[in-house]
Specification:
The chain is an all-alpha fold. 68% of the residues lie in helices and 0% in strands. The protein has four domains: 60 residues, lambda repressor-like DNA-binding domains (434 Repressor (Amino-terminal Domain)), CATH 1.10.260.40; 114 residues, no CATH class; 114 residues, no CATH class; 77 residues, no CATH class. Helix 11 packs antiparallel against helix 12 and helix 22 runs antiparallel to helix 23. It is globular and about 65 Å long.
């Protein structure tokens, strides 16, 4: 549409998951009824999804994508560009990361020698802290250089430094995987996973290799490969038992095992198997007790009582039991009439993910004010993570659509997140 010079062009309504679902369904020449039959829901439910009256859970998005023979990113619309990307610039490092990861075993020549390994390790520590708090904008630009330097040390440095360099290189690749996954560059995320595995195997540390497998299982889960992910996770637990028999696990091994158990709980929830999901959640509590009921960040995993509660709520929401999930938050509240929230010391990625989940649950329960409040809390904790999360965009779009006269604050949030109804 043409517009007069000197005026802003008219804004268009953003494309939602429902819009993408409708286009994908028609591309595959399926009726709403035919698609509904493939994913075991009613035709009216498909129509409500397409109109935006209902919000799809992660497991339903995967089921729909699989039925339509598309990747889930086709329905979620990732990666997101536009005004948020122009402001944050978080995607700008992606082309350089692609090049660096492609050249993983043949890094670019360097004009100067790599910095000493202790200096590089200190920078990887900083990168890992940024990753845990989902601060992708400041983290991204640090990755290509540190990966290149560590690779030179790992491949050609002093023999006594090489294993340690590979160990920390695996951590740096994990940060690259996290950034790519959270921003919706799933092909780059998978490439990074291959690099994590390559570095982990050369580190000589079996726990780092198990952690690498845990990340691969997570990617399988995100693609809906449930059987493969389950087999992978169970095999990794068997490997841990072989490495440290008779449950004589170190605290680090317990933290890694706990992370595997929580991933199994999420998997069973995605397949809508509440009994098995709850069994794994109970087992995770047992593992946490053996580790002293402390929240841990061993081997770049977040495990402990706080993360178990976060996963407990997530599993219920994923299975559609939003009422019970919200009741559980009230039950855990430290004061009457309140609501449990992760402690302030919880890493930003985990904490913000919790509030994003709960916002979706409150929207489903009809608590629009509560949903928006939790979106704001997620933004305060981890702006980059919140701004580019598919669920945030869908929840925000629904809130704007339901309100005939949205507040200035809600409208501003929608604009910040790349969502508008004008």
């Amino acid at each position: 549409m043409l517009h007069r010079e000197g005026t802003d062009p008219p804004m268009t309504k953003p494309v939602t998951l429902g819009d993408r679902l409708r286009v994908a369904r028609r591309t595959r020449k399926l009726s709403a009824g035919q698609l509904a039959q493939k994913v075991a829901i009613s035709p009216s439910y498909v129509q409500k999804l397409e109109s935006g009256k209902r919000k799809a859970s992660p497991s339903l998005i995967l089921a729909l994508a699989k039925a339509l023979h598309f990747g889930p990113e086709v329905l979620t619309g990732q990666p997101y560009y536009g005004e948020p990307e122009a402001e944050d610039g978080v995607h700008a490092v992606v082309p350089e990361l692609r090049r660096v990861l492609l050249c993983y075993d043949s890094p670019d020549d360097m004009e100067m020698s790599p910095r000493p390994l202790p200096v590089l390790v200190s920078e990887v520590d900083q990168i890992s802290a940024l990753r845990r708090d989902a601060r992708y904008a400041p983290m991204g630009p640090l990755l290509p250089a540190i990966i290149t330097e560590l690779t030179h040390v790992a491949l050609g440095g002093r023999v006594e430094d090489q294993s340690r360099a590979f160990w920390h290189l695996a951590r740096a690749y994990r940060a690259a995987n996290s950034l790519a996954h959270k921003l919706g560059h799933h092909d780059l995320s998978n490439t990074a996973l291959g690099c994590v595995n390559w570095a982990a195997r050369r580190s000589g540390d079996p726990l780092m290799q198990v952690t690498s497998g845990y990340l691969v299982a997570g990617a399988m889960l995100r693609q809906g490969a449930y059987t493969s992910a389950r087999r992978k996770l169970l095999g990794l637990r068997e490997e841990l038992e072989r490495l440290q028999p008779e449950r004589s696990f170190t605290n680090d091994a317990l933290a890694v095992d706990g992370a595997l158990v929580l991933k199994l709980a999420v998997l069973e929830a995605r397949e809508n198997k509440p009994d098995r999901a709850n069994e794994y959640l109970r087992e995770a509590k047992d593992v946490a007790r053996m580790a002293g009921n402390r929240d841990s960040l061993a081997y770049e995993t977040s495990f402990g009582p706080t993360n178990i509660r976060i996963h407990d709520v997530h599993a219920m929401i994923d299975m559609g039991d939003t009422e019970q999930a919200l009741a559980r938050l009230t039950e855990w509240a430290p004061t009457s009439g309140g609501e449990w929230a992760p402690p302030a010391t919880t890493v930003g990625e985990r904490s913000s993910h919790h509030f994003i989940d709960v916002a979706s649950a409150k929207l489903a329960a009809g608590d629009r004010a509560g949903a928006f409040s939790d979106l704001r809390r997620a933004r305060k904790i981890a702006p980059n993570h919140t701004r580019f999360h598919p669920s945030v965009r869908e929840t925000t779009a629904a809130l704007l659509r339901m309100d005939a006269h949205p507040s200035n604050e809600l409208s501003a949030f929608g604009s910040w997140a790349g969502v508008s109804t004008t």
